[in-house]
Amino acid sequence: MLGIVPTTYRGDDRTPSPGEVDRWSRLGVAGLGSGVQNAVLLLSQVIVGVSDLDAASERLRCAGFAVRDGGRHPELGTANRVVPLGAQYLELLGVVDPTLAVNNEFGRSLIKHIEGGERIVRWSLRTFDIESVAAELGLAVEHRSRLRPDGVRLTWRAAGLGLSLVDGWLPFFMQWDDPSDYPGTMSVAHTNGATGVAWLELTPGDPAQLERWLHRAHVSLRLVDGVPGVHAMGIRTRHGEYEIRP
C-alpha cells in the first residue's frame, strides 16, 4: 500500500534554482556545464485530454490563466492549447479530425482515454541529452512536430512516448530541437500569477519502473493508492495552489 507518499526525485544532490532552469531553457545543451546536461531531467509538460478545446480553454481563462493556441499535430488529427508556466507548461489536447485520429496510435490513445471525460493522460520530462537517456532505458528516439497557427513548424525528439500512450503514469522524454521554441517560456500574463507546477499526483502501475525512469529527474510527486494513472496536479498561483483533478 502506498497511502499518500510525497516524493521529490532529484537527479543530483540539489534542486536547480529558477535562474538555472531559465538559463538552461535559453541556452540549450551548448550552454550547459559539464555533467549538468547529462544528469538533469526536468518536469516539462502535463497533458490533459479534453473533448472540447474551446470550452476547456475558457474554463482556465476564467480561473486566471492565459491560454495560447498551440496549433495542430500534422497527420494525427489532434490539436492543442498551451498554458505556459515558465519551466513547465500545461497542455490541453483534443481531437479535431476524428477520421485522421482513429488511424494512428496517438489519436486512438487520446480517444480511448477521454471516453469517460476529461483526464490527465500523460506527462513528460525534458532533457538536453535525449540520446543518452533513451540508450540508458532501452528506448528509441523519434522525431515529432506540430504546426503553430502562424505556420511555423515546431520540432522535437521524443523517447518512450509509445509506452506513455498506454500507461500515462510513466513519463516520456522530450528534447526541443530549438530550445527557444519551448512552450513554457512563451510570453504571457496570468492574472492569477501562476508560476509553475507544484506537484503531480499519480499511482504507478510498476513503482520499480517509475523509479528507474526518474532516477535523474527533478520532480515532486504524490504517490497514492488507486487505479494506475495521473490523477491530479497543483499549479502555484498568488492565491495558493490551483488544483486540476478531472
Task: Give an overview in words.
- The chain is an alpha/beta fold.
- It has one domain: Roll (2,3-Dihydroxybiphenyl 1,2-Dioxygenase, domain 1).
- 24% of the residues lie in helices and 37% in strands.
- The chain contains 8 helices and 13 strands.
- Strands 1, 2, 3, 4, 5, 6, 7, 8, 9, 10, 11, 12 and 13 form a 13-stranded mixed β-sheet that branches.
- A hairpin with a 4-residue loop joins β4 and β5.
- The longest helix is centred in the first third of the chain and has 10 residues.
- The chain is globular and about 40 Å long.
CATH superfamily: 2,3-Dihydroxybiphenyl 1,2-Dioxygenase, domain 1
- CATH class category label: Alpha Beta
Order of secondary-structure elements: EHHEHEEEHHEHEEHEEHEEE
In the predicted model, the low-confidence regions spanning at least 5 consecutive residues are 1-5, 9-39
| CATH level 3 topology | 2,3-Dihydroxybiphenyl 1,2-Dioxygenase, domain 1
Total individual domains: 1
Main beta sheet, described?
Answer: 13 strands, mixed
Count the beta strands. Answer: 13
Residues in β-strands, percent:
35-45%
* Helix fraction by DSSP (H/I, runs of at least 4): 10-25%
Class by alpha and beta content: alpha/beta
Provide a count of the helices.
Answer: 8
| Overall CATH architecture | Roll
Radius of gyration: 17 Å
Using the alpha-carbon principal axes, give the shape: globular
What is the residue-averaged pLDDT? 86
* Termini separation: 24 Å
